Amino acid sequence: MKTSLKDEFLSTLDGKKAEEILRRCVHCGFCNATCPTYQELSDERDGPRGRIYLIKQMLENGEATEKTRTHLDRCLTCRSCETTCPSGVEYSQLLDIGKQHIEKLVPRSFSDRTLRYGVTRILPNASWNKVMFRLARQFTFLMPDTFREQIPTEQPLKSYPSATKTNRTMIAFRGCVQQTATPNTVKAAKAVLSHLGIELIEVAQEGCCGAVNLHLSEHERAVQQAKRNIDVWWRYLEHGAEAIVMSASGCGVTIKDYPQLLVESPYYRERALVIAEKAKDLSEILLAEDLTQLPLKTSNERVAVHCPCTLQHGMKNKETYYEVLRRLGVEQTRKSEDHLCCGSAGTYSLFQPELSQQLLKRKMKALSEGDPEGIVTANIGCQLHLGSKAQVPVKHWIELIAERLEN
């Protein structure tokens, strides 16, 4: 794709990156075939190719409208298009650049800015979102249906059989929403890995991975969160921690992208490259171990396995995920449209509720094809979103495995 970006923008790191990405695009449109929003809306501007043209036009002319922002806001950043693209277009990076740019060109309304400000200050803070969830449960009758359904029910803490002898250490990344909404996920991971000789340690000083702020174009806040986490984790890695274990793929893909996020900070970017290598999805950790060591009870429970976009398109770990579940004896039901997003997409379900619900309805239909007794997933956002409509229990897959551990 030919470009003529403005010289002052082209001289920046974002400008150089945008031009590099734009020049890779060959207009083929394969991306639209796997784009959830294009499938739902059939509007060229709501597919990756159309959004690329909108961003290109904005970066070349220095102008944009609210309509442009609407089409960019509708993108889930599921990255299904990146999996499909034969030219290796890094669409999600271009979208981030475009969204940062349009925030300066087309100011949002006061109400929109206020809501986004509240979300970026409350959700990434585990203490605050815990209070928010408790209050929200008391006043659900005041909320619109789509918001009410997003409030997670309070989970009773469970106890899982654990081994006492471990000889290896890894860091358990707890996340911000996951540790308050589904606290049993990390507990289950700790129990399962203990039987493999691995101690998962929780690091109190770590914070949000930065995903919430990145979703809402709060780039600088995300940068500060990334730097803080790197400083905290680095000390543990120096003292022998082997990996940073991700039980939420939405966090995992964000941390994997730290080198790009910190490209303007050479000191932190160098460390971010190490962090990105050390950050592993939980399924990666288990696949590298001898799973016959796990004292698992047999089970005939049939489950539909949901593979989050962040895991299959972002972290490229789809096959690892399914292989681990197969080796662990999980009986999986049939389903279709595995590549399409469920509509959660971080904060998307809050800011694009109508489209999010359309995608959720479509995903639930696909997951229900094999009449499962439960649904498992690998990301907190997807878990809560699917759970808001599912007629069967929805849980993180590691909880399913931990429940099968013998005492």
TrEMBL record:
Keywords: 4Fe-4S, Electron transport, Iron, Iron-sulfur, Metal-binding, Oxidoreductase, Repeat, Transport. It holds the Pfam family CCG. Residues 16-46, 66-89 form the 4Fe-4S ferredoxin-type domain. The keyword Nuclease does not apply. It catalyses: (R)-lactate + A = pyruvate + AH2; glycolate + A = glyoxylate + AH2. InterPro entries: 4Fe4S_Fe-S-bd, 4Fe4S_Fe_S_CS, Cys_rich_dom, Glc_ox_4Fe-4S, Helical_ferredxn. Signal peptide: none annotated. Its EC number is 1.1.99.14. Its cofactor is [4Fe-4S] cluster. Binds 2 [4Fe-4S] clusters. Gene3D superfamilies: 1.20.1050.140, Alpha-helical ferredoxin. GO terms for molecular function: 4 iron, 4 sulfur cluster binding; glycolate dehydrogenase activity; metal ion binding. Component of a complex that catalyzes the oxidation of glycolate to glyoxylate. This is Glycolate oxidase iron-sulfur subunit. It comes from Grimontia sedimenti. The gene is glcF.
